[in-house]
Design brief:
This protein is mainly alpha-helical. It has a domain at 1-59. It has 5 helices and no strands. The protein has helices at residues 18-28, 37-41, 74-82, 86-101, 111-116. The longest helix has 16 residues, at 86-101.
Amino acid sequence: MLVSPWVDNRLEHTLFDHTSLLRYLTDKWQLRPLPSRRIAEANSIAIALTRTIPREDVLPRITLTPEQLAVPNLETEEKAAAVLSAHHVALQKLAAFLPRHSGRRRRARSSDDRANRPQIFY
């Protein structure tokens, strides 16, 4: 999804991903190509930037205070990064589970097996 006053209010059918922005920037400013085949093959977002003047039916400009733009405190950031949320714990458990179970061949189970075992989806 591209959100910008420089993009028309329409559906663009071109497939973009985060490398599309990198491709656009290297093309726009004629920079040396980045050493990535993925970026070289990405669709540039330039195809969607067709306006010569910005749209006016958009949200007002978002302005930030100098305090909001201040460099974060590294010590505080490190402490926050060390906190494991329930989501992180679940991802760690999934990562530990997958190598043990992903290569296993499935056998046909009887209805008794299914009734007595917890369901695992993978």
